[in-house]
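Sample intake — Sigma 54-interacting transcriptional regulator
Collected from: Butyricicoccus intestinisimiae
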Amino acid sequence: MCKSIRTRKPKLNHRQYYTTRYGKDVDIVSNNYPIVQNGQILGGFSVMEDWSRMDSLHKQILELQEKLRNHTASGKSHTASKLTAKYTFDDIVHISEPMRHVVSRCRQVAKSDSSVMIYGETGTGKELLAQSIHNASRRKDGPFLAINCAAIPENLLESLLFGTEKGAYTGAERRPGLFEQADGGTLLLDEINSMNLGLQAKLLRVLQEGTVRRVGGATEISVDVRVLSNTNIPPYQAMEENKLRRDLFYRLGVVNITIPPLRERKEDIPLLVKTFVMQCNQKLERNIRDADRNVLDAFYAYDWPGNVRELQHAVEHAMNVVPDAYSMITAEYIPEHIGGAAGQTGISAPDKQRDSLASTMKDMEYNTICRVLKETGGNISESARILQMSRQKLQYRIKRHRIDVQKLRE
């Protein structure tokens, strides 16, 4: 903090180790700022985070991964290993042409050892695709490890990736990093654009040389790892914003894959909904068959900023609140911000998705509501009582069917 005051510049991400008067080892990272007013230094302040516990947790993760890797290598139980990819290309639900193109290209890419960079908006399924590539490759029997570069503090990320030697810093122990643990397999670098540029330079060297040097170490360790990476912003945008080194991009992006957002492949929505319904039936012990046409209309009208993940959550939301007696998800049980989209845009699902029975039921509902409203002179409360539903549900259905209550009162 004194240096920050003296230079009048913030000193950020400063890691310090010390022992208190009570003998407790402390590992902190501090951000230090000068306080300047009208050109005069008034003082400074420091915001400190205790990383002792965080560092300990990451060490435990590395230890567990190493034990799992050794357990698998011993041949005792490969199927029990958690260092394997769960998903395959068969788990990617799609019928749309854009996704067919992506999956087809990835199946071909999986045959080689070239680095692949996957771009897609949040929730499009980047890791699912990465795991599928691994499981279709010659490395499928090797470990699959993934690390979120945005979730790990940059001071710890280097030691997690490359490992440490005893004495590299206070409390450091001899420990392999993820590159060593993924030897013979695949390492996924999630949100690579969030990695510090200095660390990106060290990563580039590992990729070029095929060797890794532990933090505090002097020897080079050979590793055979296929590196997959992903980013949630376009790679060229990341380079323009100085979030991704160009030389690293050319090394990681030997093959570039772009996953289309859900709004560009809405033909997949019915199949995705059906899949999520079946999954939720098992998870929530329900017996729902599908979503009705009005739900699909609303889903087609919505723009899905959260993509497939948001659709999955919308289905699970509906499955939690739909009454036990229902066998279909109806529009009043999907999230309100999604349910209102169809009425605002007038967009509906393609004709091939429409069901004649659902269409007939919709017409019957429309006619019944109009008849009751006419009989009550447009009285919403009285009509809701006759129809045995709440005012809120009736008003929702009036809005959904675009019923002009004023005309029915005349």
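Post-analysis note: The CA atoms of residues 36 and 355 lie 69 Å apart.
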